[in-house]
Please model this.
Amino acid sequence: MEQTTSPRDPARQPLRWAVLGAAVAGVVLAFGYVGGWLAPARLTPARIVDALQANGGLHPGYRRNHAKGICVSGYFEGNGAASVYSTAPFFAVGKAPVVGRFALPGGNPYAPDSSVPIRSMALRLTAPDGEQWRTGMNSMPVFPLATPQAFYEQAVASAPDPKTGKPDPGKLKAFVGAHPEMAQFLAWVKGARPSASFATETYYSLNAFYLVDKDGKRQAVRWRMAPQQAGGAGDPAPAGEPDILREDLPRRIAAGPQRWKLLLTLAAPGDPVDDATRSWPADRTTIDAGTLVLDGVAPQDSGPCRDVNYDPTVLPAGIQVSHDPLLAARAAAYADSYLRRTSEEAGIPGAAPLSSEKK
Model:
């Protein structure tokens, strides 16, 4: 049969260009939506980070949250107890190097250590084949809010009043009243006191994840790092010593490695997996998966943690994210903050000037 049109027939070219143009336009529109360009009212990572920056102040070269911190290093020694639930290499018997960071929440790198009762631990574990597990944990057992939008609104409500330099109590009261999901967190806050040592705190994953075994079976889990050294969170940080945490940790590590047990709590059917504001019952099965050993410490401006983005969604095979909306928001906001501070340190044109003491 005679072919009336060839693949290169000029009559068909406009149709091809139309299809190609539609595809390109679709990609542009998708990026525009994600970036917030086509939906100005939509919550974006940049808006979240802007709100954090407005509260903590602009400190070029620093993280926009958890700005005040210190680097640590060591290793994690898996004991094999969790390997039946997950193929992740870190749960097998063996050691993996760790680069970590302790910090305070907030964007002010000069905040006194007694200003907040929460401390954080972030870790990057690296397997022999290069796989990584990054996790960011905090010293409270639940998160105050369940969604990125609520977190953003809290940041806005907490913004300092230009006249007083402090948050407006009326706005904070109204926000709390509109968010009953904060109840468990507020109950914890009532008895919490700023501790005098990073080394004596328990750190919680807050968000849930899934362990995946060799057959693909998933088990929802939360984890925590439980300290093995003497002392406790009940040892308060003196108000007159603004840097007691940074001074305490090097002394402790000089005296010997600091250790935590990695405890995995397995969810039962019906436990809330995608809501970090709700705790699980205390009788859930808990597995001792191994020991974190920290034996090195360094300033955050020159230590190995300086250039690490502790994105909690960077996971090895054998661990998966849950559908908790906070996880995607954390990853996106951390990336935005990382780009800002590294751009400032690199002196990229148009970036804010770096302070004399970079971090």
Notes: The chain is about 25% helix and 20% strand.
